[in-house]
């Protein structure tokens, strides 16, 4: 087996396991690299705060670095909490002749608000910036090192310019502190215009250790030979997924879920198996043919932290029926198999995260009367209201319409069906929403019972 690239993390220990050395090693492992470490300080902390810090002597920090590098080929390194000027200078001296890329995460304050950098260390930190392939400050850190306030895009550009003059080859100003729908990180590389790198913002209180996770993953990408932009983008994608899969741990700010990619692979197999079994039950469901539209039916199921259509499974060949009413599930369960019903489900989940399944059904007066009889909550959209700037593909129309219907409803979490009456050449359809396969099966049977009653 080919040896894994080694990434050295030089940072503090987080006894709560969410940030620092612990977060770095988890992220490095998930990125497919081998993690080595040099610990700069011990912290007593949990999700609510830091109760104590014990610094390691500068000499021993240097000894850790030199001992690792003398025996193990290091392909990249990163720094996190360096705490004091003597430790920073010891790290700088140990790395001055390095032949691998270094990512400096200039950690100053913990997520909980605890100060992690002594006052006399700010100037010392600037002294090691020239060693960095990449510097990754958040907005408050960038303000601290540049001495300017950052409120606008122009401020970010100016801050990047000032920071690049301090010696790093590239600067990534992390935009998590900005109040915006998307989280935009700005990557500035010497001799180039800053590049905006956007990710969907994740609404979560569990953000402890995000900076550590991002910088460790970027360092891992550089260790694997990625160019800077690719390394940053892949790290952003990983962190975004880990945040979406984050969990409550203790009473304060929990960590991203570093194991999310591995856990999701396991979940995928479970969903595909459950969808296959559900398809077999659909083929035996009496009267289901009356709910299958001319464009055929499909059922989708989303991963718990679905972000795009590749996180949503459906039948690759849809569900059809014969003239005799025999239901046939065509193809097989596959992620990314149907962009139409996947877009519907992803939009529904924005308003109601409890929705994990969706099915496209026929819409006519008899079916709608049965929907009302079942007490299903309806939401509607009119294709005539679609803005002209929306590209005219069916999947984009369904995405726009579902989002509009859900967001304009006073109780989106109660919606069972999203309906549209079609248009010229477009068949009317309804999309049945459900929490899981069991809920979907119960709703379909209830609707069929009402139709036959």
From TrEMBL:
Q: Which residues form the Thiamine-phosphate synthase ThiN domain?
A: 275-446
Q: Which InterPro entries match?
A: Aldolase_II/adducin_N_sf, HMP/HMP-P_kinase_dom, PM/HMP-P_kinase-1, Ribokinase-like, ThiN
Q: Which UniProt keywords apply?
A: ATP-binding, Kinase, Nucleotide-binding, Transferase
Taxonomic lineage of this organism?
Answer: Bacteria, Pseudomonadati, Thermodesulfobacteriota, Desulfovibrionia, Desulfovibrionales
Q: Name one Pfam family in it.
A: Phos_pyr_kin
On whether Nucleotide-binding is a keyword of this UniProt record, the answer is yes
Where the record annotates domain Pyridoxamine kinase/Phosphomethylpyrimidine kinase, the positions are 14-256
Q: Which GO terms describe its cellular component?
A: cytosol
Task: List GO molecular-function terms, semicolon-separated.
Answer: ATP binding; hydroxymethylpyrimidine kinase activity; phosphomethylpyrimidine kinase activity
Which PANTHER family does the entry mention? HYDROXYMETHYLPYRIMIDINE_PHOSPHOMETHYLPYRIMIDINE KINASE THI20-RELATED, PHOSPHOMETHYLPYRIMIDINE KINASE
Designated name of the protein: hydroxymethylpyrimidine kinase
Q: Which GO terms describe its biological process?
A: thiamine biosynthetic process; thiamine diphosphate biosynthetic process
Q: What is its EC number?
A: 2.7.1.49
Q: Does the keyword Transferase apply?
A: yes
Tell me the organism: Maridesulfovibrio salexigens (strain ATCC 14822 / DSM 2638 / NCIMB 8403 / VKM B-1763) (Desulfovibrio salexigens)
Q: Which CDD domains match?
A: HMPP_kinase
Q: In which pathway does it act?
A: Cofactor biosynthesis; thiamine diphosphate biosynthesis
The record ties this protein, via NCBIfam families, to:
HMP-P_kinase (TIGR00097)
């Amino acid at each position: 087996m080919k040896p894994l690239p080694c990434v050295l993390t030089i940072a503090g220990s987080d006894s709560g396991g969410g940030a620092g050395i612990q977060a770095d090693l988890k992220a490095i492992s998930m990125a497919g690299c081998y993690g080595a470490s040099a610990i700069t300080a011990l912290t007593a902390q949990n999700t609510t705060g830091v109760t104590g810090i014990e610094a390691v002597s500068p000499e021993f920090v240097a000894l850790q670095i030199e001992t690792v590098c003398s025996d193990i080929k290091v392909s990249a390194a990163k720094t996190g909490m360096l705490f004091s000027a003597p430790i920073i200078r010891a790290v700088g001296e140990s790395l001055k002749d390095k032949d691998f890329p270094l990512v400096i995460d200039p950690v100053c304050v913990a997520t909980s608000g605890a100060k992690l950098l002594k006052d006399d260390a700010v100037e010392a930190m600037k002294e090691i910036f020239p060693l960095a392939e990449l510097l990754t400050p958040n907005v408050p850190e960038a303000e601290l090192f540049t001495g300017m306030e950052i409120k606008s895009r122009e401020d970010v550009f100016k801050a990047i310019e000032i920071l690049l003059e301090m010696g790093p080859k590239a600067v990534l100003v992390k935009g998590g502190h900005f109040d915006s729908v998307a989280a935009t990180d700005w990557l500035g590389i010497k001799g180039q215009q800053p590049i905006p790198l956007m990710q969907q913002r994740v609404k979560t209180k569990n953000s402890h250790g995000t900076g550590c996770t991002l910088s460790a993953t970027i360092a891992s990408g550089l260790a694997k030979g990625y160019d800077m932009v690719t390394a940053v983008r892949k790290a952003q994608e990983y962190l975004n997924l880990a945040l979406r899969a984050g969990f409550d741990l203790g009473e304060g700010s929990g960590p991203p879920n570093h194991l999310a990619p591995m856990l999701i692979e396991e979940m995928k197999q479970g969903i595909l198996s459950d969808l296959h079994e559900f398809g077999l039950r659909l083929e035996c469901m009496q009267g289901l043919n009356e709910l299958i539209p001319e464009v055929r039916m499909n059922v989708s199921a989303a991963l718990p932290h679905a972000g795009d259509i590749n996180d949503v499974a459906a039948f690759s060949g849809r569900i059809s029926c014969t003239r005799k009413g025999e239901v046939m599930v065509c193809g097989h369960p596959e992620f990314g198999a149907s962009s139409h019903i996947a877009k519907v489900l992803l939009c529904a989940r924005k308003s109601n995260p409890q929705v994990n399944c969706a099915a496209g059904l026929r819409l006519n007066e008899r079916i709608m009367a049965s929907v009302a009889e079942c007490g299903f909550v309806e939401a509607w959209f009119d294709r005539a209201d679609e803005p002209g700037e929306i590209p005219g593909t069916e999947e984009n129309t369904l995405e726009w319409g579902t989002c509009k219907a859900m967001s304009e409803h006073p109780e989106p979490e109660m919606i069972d069906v999203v309906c549209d009456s079609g248009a010229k050449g477009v068949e009317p359809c309804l999309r049945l929403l459900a929490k899981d396969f069991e809920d979907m099966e119960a709703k379909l049977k209830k609707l069929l019972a009402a139709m036959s009653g």
